[in-house]
From TrEMBL:
<dbReference type="InterPro" id="IPR008936">
    <property type="entry name" value="Rho_GTPase_activation_prot"/>
</dbReference>
<feature type="domain" description="Rho-GAP">
    <location>
        <begin position="304"/>
        <end position="492"/>
    </location>
</feature>
<dbReference type="GO" id="GO:0005096">
    <property type="term" value="F:GTPase activator activity"/>
</dbReference>
<dbReference type="InterPro" id="IPR000198">
    <property type="entry name" value="RhoGAP_dom"/>
</dbReference>
<protein>
    <recommendedName>
        <fullName>Rho GTPase-activating protein 1</fullName>
    </recommendedName>
</protein>
<dbReference type="GO" id="GO:0007264">
    <property type="term" value="P:small GTPase-mediated signal transduction"/>
</dbReference>
<dbReference type="GO" id="GO:0005737">
    <property type="term" value="C:cytoplasm"/>
</dbReference>
<dbReference type="Pfam" id="PF00620">
    <property type="entry name" value="RhoGAP"/>
</dbReference>
<dbReference type="InterPro" id="IPR036865">
    <property type="entry name" value="CRAL-TRIO_dom_sf"/>
</dbReference>
<feature type="domain" description="CRAL-TRIO">
    <location>
        <begin position="107"/>
        <end position="265"/>
    </location>
</feature>
<dbReference type="InterPro" id="IPR001251">
    <property type="entry name" value="CRAL-TRIO_dom"/>
</dbReference>
<dbReference type="Pfam" id="PF13716">
    <property type="entry name" value="CRAL_TRIO_2"/>
</dbReference>
<dbReference type="GO" id="GO:2001136">
    <property type="term" value="P:negative regulation of endocytic recycling"/>
</dbReference>
Amino acid sequence: MEPGHQPNLRPIRAFQVTHSGIMDSEDDDANLNLSLSDYHDYEPNLEFDDSELICTTSLAPLTPELLDLSQEFLLPSSSDGTIEDNFEKELGEGPPSYSEIATCSLDYDVFGDLHRSGVVEVVGDDELGRRIIVISACRLPLSKDVHPDLLLRFLMHTLDKYVEQDYSVIYFHYGLSSRNKPPFSWLWKAYKAFDRKYKKNLKTLYLVHPTNVIRIVWQMLRPAISVKFGRKMMYVNYLHELQQYLDLDKVHIPPQVIECDKILLSKNPRAAEIAKEMNSASKPSLGEAEGPCSLKCPTKQFGVSIQFIKKNNTEMIDSIPPIVRQCIEFLSQPDALETEGLFRRSPSAAIVKEIQRDCNNGGVISFRNDPHIAAVLLKTFLRDLEEPLLTFDLYDEISKFQAWEIPKKPRKVKILVLEKLPVDNYKILKYIMQFLWKVQDRSCLNKMTSSNLAVVFGPNLLWPPNGHVSLQSIAPINAFTDFLITHHESIFII
């Protein structure tokens, strides 16, 4: 492998991916006829039989009969290829039935079968604290068993909990077949049903193991889809390419997808060699730069236990780790406290990593007068603890919080917090909840209510030993966190 070579990761639109960002290609249309990967020029049979699709060298449009598209979709687009500031207005209103879907509210139990299928999973946060949502085509139920409208409602019902903050979506394409695929027209209807609320904070949509059908569908939808949205979509041909951007240990990849990746690599020796080198290389985790603090040096605060910090850090006052105190003191300033979207926005990854390195090496840290940096570092500290602040022992009890009888909730919460939490954990939790109450008290300015803060902090305060928080457990964990914030004065002993 040539020095400096990077595995190919091509966005759906023709972009050049660099370490500093994504740049438009000078010749956008010229890239449409390129292979999905420089590693191979074949199209593996990973999905439904696409033999009925006509794929020429120029990827000519297909007939409406083959694609099951409505006449509404076939109307010419008024887009001139520029970036529209309000592309949803340009697209117009969605079909009436899907407008109802976008505003409907359904009981959680309606989607019981879809929840159990694991077709959609929330697997924690990426290195910048953005929630990661995984959609697996191989787990889609049979089309004859689930109506496409119900599937769309389920997707919207799940995303509604996370779209108010930055998030990313991973779509594993392997396993889509003629038996479980929604009709092509559903893609267009779904795009219109997911209004600006869903698209605005979506940072990246990773399409893993794409096939030629995706290219054809994208070409057909492209005239009507916003350029802004198109820039968020990226092809990922192999799992090791995704590893450059996400910690795959936190992503519960279906076994079928892993086997598919192995088959693809076996057919491409060059890609297999790159994957082997990437897997064998020692990759430092976030905040663990190569250098003197790659192991547990005494000044390290990220990725260790509370006990380790207390034992080795002389600056720890009243059991509060220095980084937690520094973040909260900075964020408690009026200008920072009143920042709109606090804890929802993601600053530069390079800056966050640099500050974490300085912190772990015992250096002086600077938030660069940016509240979002301090906010991400606070969330990252909690997420990187070896054991969650609320401990593994309390996971089962807290995950049943919504089933508790309402009159008994205050007493049961006090028992958990005051009697079952270790003393150091209790002090840190109290310190953070007191601060979060101040944040929600300024919600008229920062737009962060207690429920919004609970969605952000809940999964960072508690997760099971296997690291995978199920969709059913997220709601009670967030509700428990909301309860702590709202009733902190009566729960925590002053």
